[in-house]
Amino acid sequence: MNCQSFETESGYLCVYEKDGRVFKIQFNQRCEGKINREIATQFQEYLEGRRKTLDFPVEVPGTEFQKRVWASLRKIPYGHVVTYKELAEKLKTAPRAVGQALKANPLPIYFPCHRVVAKDSIGGFTGGIQWKRMLLKIEGCEF
DNA sequence: GCTTTTTAGCCCG
DNA sequence: CGGGCTAAAAAGC
User: Fold this and answer.
1) Which of A43, A76, A87, A120 has the fewest Cβ atoms within 10 angstroms?
2) For the domain A64-138, what is the CATH code?
3) DSSP string of A18-71?
4) Closest nucleotide to A95: CA versus each C1'
């Protein structure tokens, strides 16, 4: 596992890689370099199973609805899963709309969309269902 | 702008 | 399995 941080024209970028797959994470301008390295460390610790929550300030682009859904993801406890339907009921919307919003998740792991599964299956995950399985496994959740 | 299609779901027969 | 429901976003007009 490798995790690095860079400065780019639009903000800071954190890249982490495992098993040949790459996640790229973009941060807003307000993140200090010091905080940025701290963030990279948080991701690394999470992937090694030594950290349960990621916590740092971030601003992501999205509609009001999407941001509301993403925020709600962070209330799902570590190692716990909910279904699209349960989340939809909580947010007073429809399961498919939740799926749409999760698909647009700009910051996986920080917004733990892998903790949302379908009623009778694991559901989807952008960039590979293997990631979802792996992340759940890290959290000790066999699915 | 307004209309149609698409979607990481779900339920019923 | 196959349709019908559904809300949001994207694509089409």
Assistant:
1) A120
2) 1.10.10.10
3) ETTEEEEEE--TTS-HHHHHHHHHHHHHHHTTS-S-----------HHHHHHHH
4) B9
